[in-house]
Amino acid sequence: MHKWERIPHEAARSLARLLPRIEQAFEAAGGNAADWAAFEQRLRREWPRLFELLLGLYGTQYDFFYHLEQLLIAMAQSWRERPQWLKQRDVVREADSEWFQSERMMGGVLYVDRFCGTLNRLREFIPYFNELGLTYLHLMPLFAAPEGNNDGGYAVSSYREVNPQIGTTAELAALAHELDRAGISLVLDFVFNHTSDEHEWARRAQAGDPDYQEFYFLFPDRTMPDAYERTLREIFPTVRRGSFTWRPDMQRWVWTTFNSFQWDLNYANPAVFRAMAAEMLFLANLGVAVLRLDAVPFIWKRMGTNCENQPEAHQIIQAFNAIARIAAPALLFKSEAIVHPDDVLSYISPHECQLSYNPLLMALLWESLATREVKLLAHSLSHRFRLPAGCAWINYLRSHDDIGWTFDDNDARAVGIDPWGHRQFLNAFYTGRFPSSFARGLPFQENPDTGDARVSGTLASLAGLEQALSNGDPTAIETAIRRILLLHSIILSIGGIPLLYLGDEVGTLNDYGYVNDPAKADDSRWVHRPVRNQAAMDQRYDPSTVPGRIFGELVKLIRLRTSLPALRDGAMEVVRSDNRHVLAYVRQTGAQRVLVLTNFSEYPQSIAGNLLRMYGPGVELFDLVSDQPVSANEALVLPPYRFVWLTPVR
Ligand code: GLC
Ligand code: GLC
């Protein structure tokens, strides 16, 4: 029998052996027949795929079959315990699997503790979220974590206990349901590459339990760490050199890609896979609609490589995806891979992560603002924006993390840009070291050996508002507001789910106070994670204020988007503008068509009438943003940093 026959055969035989035992356990635990039937149906559908993935990952382990059985028992139990409202949502979203492609989708992200303190208080802001049209809310890590520095919650000590200062797990589940009733899907992180060194698994490893020591990568001396480090990239070089941490209490080196208190999990161990699958299903049953898969590139290690984007990383995520399809079908994954664009793309598929951050668009929007030219942006988007069917970009302007210049070197060379020099320029520009820069950002993780660095800063400070306000320069303030709105116009129109970092809608500036907190002082990302600025929010309806102008125009654009079916899903075509400062693209769904033109420079720019007639298409066009007719009989002059969303008049 050939391999391609043998695997389906083994899959069927294993399922036949396992099913009666899983069903028995399900019934013994009080499960009802209808629930079992739904589970069995989905299991049969996904099983060949799940089995093959797990066989590939763990088939050589002598106790493979035991792990399979335990995994299925845990999945069935999780399904049995899944709240009724979520089972209803499962049915609805399975029937409408492209729900997230809607032109009504709008994302927001915030830290609960910094935004309002507690989960209970967050409920009071649901009307505010509705004002912004949010349908997706990512709450930054809010689970138990070590005191002091915990990497903004990304060092998780328990995936089942909310940090007591923020609330309780029951409150989180209630909030998820309440958000759902308000039309908002809850997004949480799945920090599955590592746990904190205070997680129970890590504590047991520290206490010498060999089963839990196998959850992590522990080495008695430098032999293996040195061998791995020959090819590893340093992620946080200013915090600690290398990727390993010495634990005197254990007399062991521990693999710690990020901070010393974040211990990488060993996914070559099937017990780790199973344990994390159970944590994932727990989060799903709280009412999470989308899990943001944190640090996906790092989850599989292979000697002699940079231990990023290994084939097994994909297999693990695909196996989690299959498990979700069976036991929590409404759950979607969003990939956090801030790496080369080819690698970013490799995680995106209906069978892996349906959603992904779009770090390339994010970085290149800033690149275009700095250079006032769109050649690298237009060229990169023209061949890198398209996604497989059933998937969507999350388009954002900045996150809680730094901005890194992850464009492709050959894309840069193709448009006459030297990639290394350009990254140096962009870092200098956004940290304000470049003369005449409008931006006020801070360097993040400058690596003295390689010269690499990334950039921290809020949207408004990077776009020039901070400098303009401190110079009291009304023209510069106006220009900065135009830049902020221009960036939003793009993420709202280009295709995918726009994601707003809460605070940016009222022009929140950098918060330099983080340096006074020893737990934050050496991590410049805190400069762009300020607490909620209620004073600015209170000014949001007053168009004579800066927050009022940003908020008012932004909300107008968000509303406009919801009325334009042409802006649904991600089909987008970059078209010629014949002007190096103007980005042009077309969106079309059915009969509706929108041509978006954006001027990235501080000077007026013109677009020839024949291009408008060709791409509009037509002679009589209408700008949906300004509510003005546009005639394609003549050239269109776009004022500084202005954009139009043109549609043909019929
Ligand atoms: C992700 C997070 C980042 C964190 C890292 C380690 O990249 O976005 O904030 O430092 O993972 O968990
Ligand atoms: C991600 C990125 C890295 C970033 C880090 C923390 O894993 O790969 O560039 O700095 O998270 O912010």
Spell out the blueprint of helices and strands.
Layout: H1 3-28, H2 33-58, H3 64-81, H4 84-95, E1 107-110, H5 112-115, H6 119-122, H7 126-131, E2 136-139, E3 143-144, E4 158-162, H8 169-181, E5 185-190, E6 194-196, H9 200-206, H10 210-213, E7 218-219, H11 223-229, E8 244-247, E9 252-255, E10 262-264, H12 270-286, E11 288-293, H13 311-327, E12 332-335, H14 341-346, E13 355-357, H15 359-371, H16 375-384, E14 392-396, H17 409-414, H18 419-430, E15 442-444, E16 454-456, H19 459-462, H20 465-470, H21 474-493, E17 497-501, H22 534-538, H23 546-562, E18 572-574, E19 582-589, E20 592-599, E21 605-607, H24 609-615, E22 620-623, E23 628-631, E24 636-638, E25 643-648
Parallel strand pairs: 1-2, 1-17, 2-5, 5-11, 11-12, 12-13, 13-14, 14-17
Antiparallel strand pairs: 3-4, 6-10, 7-9, 8-9, 15-16, 18-19, 19-20, 20-25, 21-24, 22-23, 22-25
The chain binds alpha-D-glucopyranose (2 copies).
Q: Please state the average pLDDT score.
A: 97
Strand order of the largest sheet: 1-2-5-11-12-13-14-17
Q: What compounds are bound to the protein?
A: alpha-D-glucopyranose
Instruction: Give the helix level as a range of percent.
Output: 40-55%
Shape: globular
What does this structure look like?
The relative contact order is 0.08. Helix 1 (3-28) crosses helix 2 (33-58), helix 2 runs antiparallel to helix 3 and helix 21 runs parallel beside helix 23. A hairpin with a 7-residue loop joins strand 18 (572-574) and strand 19. The termini are far apart. The radius of gyration is 25 Å and the shape is globular. With 650 residues, the chain is an alpha/beta fold. The longest helix has 26 residues, at 3-28. The strands form 7 sheets. It has an 8-stranded parallel beta barrel with strand order 1-2-5-11-12-13-14-17, surrounded by 4 helices. It has 24 helices and 25 strands. It binds alpha-D-glucopyranose (2 copies). Residues 235, 295, 338, 401-402, 404, 454 line the site of one alpha-D-glucopyranose.
